[in-house]
């Protein structure tokens, strides 16, 4: 009897999970859950997906696994979420929650609410480029109207080393825009910086090799002291002459970006600037 109670408690804490999609995120999440002894399997209709699951050492979901699943996580391209959700809804038991991993999509992408079926989203804020990438130390954005599903998703996140933030459905676009700026936007910013060094005759490879450690040091300062305390450069020093020289030297497609970022930096600089320095920078940066 005691053994049955322990088994039931484990099942309640770690309910059976089926991950749909054997790509990078599906594989990474599957491996992370398996390492923490979650009952997890991967579902893929294609032979290639089944081979990827096998290569990762992950169990391929059988029809019985799908019937037993309590959480079904869709790690598929955003555009495929509605059709995959519709197809699964026709066969899964109502007790199986549907969860997508698309940061930009609302819960409605999983289809209309159905009595007895919880819907949710679980979006890891991690640039996963390989199924063997670790999720530890990152954050998952969670959204659901089901308290029970929220508890499961929070336990899942904690077990694989993810912090959790809750995202209100009404503000999902703003959340995802911020996430995109911090990842893809950072890459685009690095490309603009490489272009600036290119004006000085520095090759793209050499420029990137020089800039990446600088960017890492800036992120360390940001982590240690926050946006305002981690700010460096001519804006926080109030050096309008340097900023003017920068604007005159940059390529035409990079200068507007520099101007916008410098305006943001000027706000972060706060009271550290004298009124005269702030006024000189504002004249430069507000000029069209």
How would you characterize this protein structure?
The chain folds into 2 domains: 7-171, Rossmann fold (3-Layer(aba) Sandwich), CATH 3.40.50.720; 183-285. 53% of the residues lie in helices and 11% in strands. It has a 7-stranded mixed β-sheet with strand order 2-1-3-4-5-6-7, sandwiched between helices. α2 (24-35) links the parallel β1 (17-20) and β2 (40-43). α8 (184-199) crosses α9 (204-229) and α12 runs antiparallel to α13. The N and C termini lie far apart (77 Å). It has 13 helices and 7 strands.
Helix percent reads 40-55%
* Straight-line distance between termini: 77 Å
CATH superfamily of the largest domain: NAD(P)-binding Rossmann-like Domain
Order of neighbouring strands in the sheet with most strands: 2-1-3-4-5-6-7
What is the class of the largest domain in the CATH system?
Alpha Beta
Beta strands, count: 7
From the coordinates shown, what is the CATH architecture of the largest domain?
3-Layer(aba) Sandwich
Radius of gyration: 24 Å
Shape: elongated
**Unreliably modeled segments:** none
CATH topology of the largest domain: Rossmann fold
Q: Please indicate the count of domains.
A: 2
Query: Which sheet architecture does the biggest sheet show?
Result: 7 strands, mixed
Q: How many DSSP H or I helices?
A: 13
* Overall pLDDT score: 93
